[in-house]
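Practice problem: DDIAS protein
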Amino acid sequence: MNSVQGLLAASVISIQNSCFIYPACQNCFSRLILDSRRFNCLKCGCTGEAKDASYRYRLSLKIADTNDLFDITVFGSCLDPFFGVTAENLQRYIQDFNQLSGEARTESSARALVQAVETCFIGKRFIFGV
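Answer key — structure tokens:
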């Protein structure tokens, strides 16, 4: 699953999702189901306290090379250099910011993050391992 079959030089046309971080199972990397106090992995059955959940990056992109359009998803720590922090730390920063600024500002912080990611990626050319 992690082996690269080839390289593709392409430009990012758009960001396909606005949620770049997800709570991930430490065993199988599937999305966790979180409630206020617990997490549960539907794939492998892992459970624990919500405060102990790990987070990963998941960035879905529409990209184009000289001939074709592609939908790809980039996962995990390869995105750390672009965000400047791990997904775990970015999630912590977002939570801290939202607590300090109150619930009314949650939407504006999410919009600001989406705009920053769009600025970083859209129109830029990258080499993707596929």
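Discussion: DSSP finds three helices and eight strands in the chain. Students who identified this feature from the tokens alone can consider the problem solved.
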